[in-house]
Amino acid sequence: MLDKIPFSLLELASVRECSTIGETLQNSLCYAQAAEKLGFKRFWLAEHHNMEGIASSATAVLIAHIASGTTSLRVGSGGIMLPNHPPLVIAEQFGTLASLYPDRIDLGLGRAPGTDPVTSRALRRDNLAADQFPAEVSLLQQLLAPLRPGQNLKAIPGAGTQVPIWLLGSSLFSAQLAAKRGLPYAFAGHFAPRLMRDAVRIYQTQFQPSIHLAEPYVILGMPVIVAETETEARYLATTSHQRILALLRGEALWLKPPVDSMDGLWNIEEELHVREFLGLAAVGAPDQIKIKLENLASELHINEFMFTNDMYDPALRIKALELLANIKKDVGQ
Q1: C-alpha–C-alpha distance, residues 257 and 17, integer Å
Q2: How many CA atoms lie within 13 A of 308 on its CB side?
Q3: What is the pLDDT of residues 182-222, one digit of tens each?
Q4: Domain 2-223+302-332 -> CATH class
Q5: Do residues 227 and 214 touch, judged by C-beta distance below 8 A?
Q6: What is the pLDDT of residues 135-159, one digit of tens each?
Q7: DSSP alpha helices (H): ranges in 166-285?
Q8: Domain coordinates of the chain in residue numbers?
Q9: Which of 20, 136, 243, 290 has fewest C-beta within 10 Å?
């Protein structure tokens, strides 16, 4: 089964402790290039603002950076937080990207602002922007479609590029909207797994075919830490535990080296919150990861997996990609 399911990656451009943003973005490119060689399908970049340790705020710029250094990998947003931006600006940005890198750009859209109220105000969008999400998705679709006679508002570049739009979500709203509009859907299980089964079921059962998509298509985002042994994987996963713990405490989100034990770094309540946040994480040796992915794919009819990978060592991140790619090869043999 897994040999027929595409593997993709979601990148936050997490900055390692004592590293620089320049080094981080170069590591992201090397990571994408390795993924392309190993047959991964997509490389999406998340939008975050005002978060020390996360360098993916200028998402469209980073998409160009990754696309320019690869040749076949689909590159896109996972996602653009539409309440933060005028749809015309997004249509122009992604129309430009699609013109530079034809048939390789994806536009994933999120409804949440993805940041704090102070930053939302600094982005100069009003408080009702999230409520206007369905209308703004429609406007984006119009701006990316071929020009119509008498059309006054035009995205140049953008018009006619028909950049594929994906709806992203961690709740039920985007699942319902994606189903109604006949758009592909990606569930953010990498940070909010609680409603995963309900959201996927609603999307699949309520899906209405459209000119964009004949059948429902689901990407499941999830954290994966894979290593040669389970012991090593669980050790490496403490980097992710420390990052989520920092998020809960409102601290900077630098990637920290793994530790032998989290004892003394978190209290019982914090540990429960971190484990809930990472409830969908697959951590272990390749055989263990394969079983978890096969079970999820079988239960939920997942069309594609998209992994986050919070390993501290860039070389081990690439090694993890090799192990994931080998899972597909082993299944296909």
Answers
A1: 8
A2: 24
A3: 999 999 999 889 999 999 999 999 999 999 999 999 999 99
A4: alpha beta
A5: no
A6: 999 999 999 999 999 999 999 999 9
A7: 173-181, 196-206, 230-236, 238-249, 268-277
A8: 2-223+302-332
A9: 20
| Beta strand segments in the chain, E | 7-11, 42-45, 74-81, 105-110, 165-169, 185-187, 218-226, 282-284, 304-308
Token pair, residue 232, equals: 């090593």
Q: Which two tokens stand for residue 68?
A: 């320019």
**Is 106 in a helix, a strand, or coil?**
strand
Amino acid in the structure at residue 330: D
CA distance 168 to 302: 15
Residue at 329: amino acid letter? K
Tokens 């750009």 correspond to 105
300 forms beta bridges with none
- Token readout for 290 is 């394969």
Contact in structure between 158 and 91 (CB atoms under 8 Å): yes
Token representation of residue 306: 């998209």
Structure token pair of residue 199: 């959201």
Tokens linked to 97: 């990207």
Query: Which position has the token pair 């991140």?
Result: 317
Structure tokens at 134: 């369905």
180 C-beta neighbours (distance < 10 Å), count: 14
Q: Which two tokens stand for residue 198?
A: 């309900």
Total Cβ atoms within 10 A of residue 259:
14
Which candidate, 76, 70, 85, 103, places its Cα nearest to that of 155?
A: 85
Residue among 269, 277, 272, 222 nearest 244 (CA): 277
Question: How far is it, in rounded angstroms, from Cα 112 to Cα 174?
Answer: 10
